[in-house]
C-alpha cells in the first residue's frame, strides 16, 4: 500500500496519546476494585527495577533519592506516551491493525509484569491490563474513524483522480473509494481492506473526540486512584494496633448518662458524630506515608512520622466538639473519647518563638485553620488525635491524625487529616474561613438544647420529662434552667461529667396540662455567665440564644 503523506502526523499522534490515556485510566479504575498493585504501570516499573543492573539502581537512588520511584514511574509513562503516539500515527497513516498489534504487545508486557510480581494474586490481576487494552483499542478505532470522516480516497490517487493502474476497474474503484484503510466504512461505503486511507483529517470531529477521550481518561484514573487509595488506607487502618494511653482519661461517672429515651447519649457513636469539612472527596492518607511538618516561627523545624507520633506519650480525654455553623438547637455537636499526643508537647520540640500567636494548620486536602497558640499551650487536652471512642480514628474523621482542641469551634481548631503546622501570627496569615467573614479566634459560646420533647410533638397530659444537653467547653456548665409558657425558671437536674470539656445532660419533670405550650432553656457556665434570650446567627462567631420549642398536650 502506498503511504499517504496528506495525513498529518500530529493527528495520529494525538489519537494514539488519547487512546493510551484511556487505556491507562480504565486500567487504573479496574485496579482500584481488583487490587491497586495490579495497575500495569506500577508492575512494569517494579519489573524494571528487578531487571536493572545493580549499578543502575544505585545510581538512581543516589541521584534522585526519595524521588527515585516517582521518577521511574514517570519514565515508564513517558515511554508509553511516545509509543502510543507512534501507534496512533501508524494507525491513521497505514492500517488500524498495526495499532491493535502495538496495544496487544504492551498488554502482554503489562500482564506478564503483573502476574510475575512476588505478591501476585493470580489471574484476577490481569483484569486491569486486559480492560485497559480493550478500552484503548476501542478508543483508537473510534478516533481514527472520526478523523477519517467521509473524506476517504483510494491509496495511490491524488485529489480523488484514478491512476492509470486503477482507471479501468470501474465499479471496483468506486467501491474502494467508499471505504477506508481501517476496515471502517466511510459515509455510505462498505468495509474493505484494499489499502484506502483518508486523504485529509476531519479536524473538528477528531478534536471533539479527543476532548471526550481526555475526560474519560482523567475521570477513570481519578476514580480508580480514589478507590485504590481507600482500599489501601482501610487495610492499613484495620491492621493498626494502638498503644495504651500513658495518661488515661478519668472514668466516666456513673451518673453521666441519664438514659432518657430521645436524649443525646453522653458519648456520641463514631457513625453518628457530625461531620463538617470542605473535602468533596474524603482524603485517603496512608499512615505509612503520613508526615507532620512544623515550621515557621520556631527554632527547630521538624517532621514527625506516624510511627514517631505513636512512640510519644499518649493522652486520653473526653472532649465535646462543636461546629461554628451550628444553629441554636442544632445537632452539629458531639462528644467522644479521644486518644492522642498533646499538641503542646510536640510544639515544644520545635521551640516556639515568643511572639508567635497562631498555628496555621493545613489538611491533606489543602484546608487551613488558625488556632491561637495560647489556648493550645495553656495545659488543656489539645491533642493530635489518633483514636476516637476506643478505635483507630475513622477516615471520615481525619485518619490518620486530626486536631482536637477543647473550647474552640472546629473551624479554628479541629483540622482533620492534618499534615502541616506553620507557627505564625494572626496579623500575618489568614486561615480558610477568616476571609470568608468568620472571626479569627472562635471561642465556643455557652449553649443549651432541648432534646425531649421535640419541636411540634404531641404529648399526653400528666407527668413527662423535659431533657437535653448544654455545653461550654473548657469552662463547664454549672446550671441549667427551664421555663414553660414564660413562667418561672426552674432549675434542672444535672448529670455528672468527668471534666469541663464535655457537654452535660440535664432533665426536668413537668406536669403537662392540655393545650399548646412553649418550653425554653438557658444555661449558666462555670464563669457565672448566663445565656440571654437574644438570638444571634452562627456567623461570624457562633450562634447563641435560648432554645425554644412548642408542643401540644392532649
Structure description:
- The chain has 554 residues and is α+β, with helices and mostly antiparallel strands.
- It contains eleven helices and 21 strands.
- The chain has a five-stranded mixed sheet with strand order 4-3-12-7-8. Strands 5, 6, 9, 10 and 11 form a five-stranded antiparallel sheet that branches. Strands 14-21-20-16-17 form a five-stranded mixed sheet, with no helix packed on it.
- The longest helix is centred in the middle third of the chain and has 36 residues.
What key phrases describe this protein's structure?
554 residues; alpha+beta; five-stranded mixed β-sheet; 11 helices; 32% helix; elongated
Q: Report the uncertain regions.
A: 150-199
Helical content band:
25-40%
The fraction of residues assigned to DSSP E strands is 15-25%
Number of DSSP helical runs: 11
List the strand order in the largest sheet: 4-3-12-7-8
Radius of gyration: 33 Å
Number of DSSP-assigned strands: 21
Largest sheet: 5 strands, mixed
User: What is the global morphology?
Assistant: elongated
Mean pLDDT: 86
User: Which assembly state applies to the chains in this document?
Assistant: single chain
What structural class do the secondary elements suggest? alpha+beta
Distance between the termini: 94 Å
Write the layout of secondary structure elements.
Layout: H1 9-34, H2 40-51, H3 54-64, H4 68-93, H5 96-115, H6 127-148, E1 152-154, H7 171-177, E2 196-198, H8 203-238, E3 291-296, E4 302-305, H9 306-311, E5 315-322, E6 333-342, H10 343-350, E7 358-363, E8 368-372, H11 373-376, E9 383-388, E10 391-392, E11 402-404, E12 418-424, E13 447-452, E14 458-459, E15 462-471, E16 477-484, E17 490-491, E18 493-494, E19 504-512, E20 515-525, E21 547-553
Parallel strand pairs: 3-12, 14-21
Antiparallel strand pairs: 1-2, 3-4, 5-6, 6-9, 7-8, 7-12, 9-10, 9-11, 13-15, 15-19, 16-17, 16-20, 18-19, 20-21
Helix pairs in contact: 1-4, 1-6, 1-8, 2-4, 2-5, 4-5, 5-6, 6-8
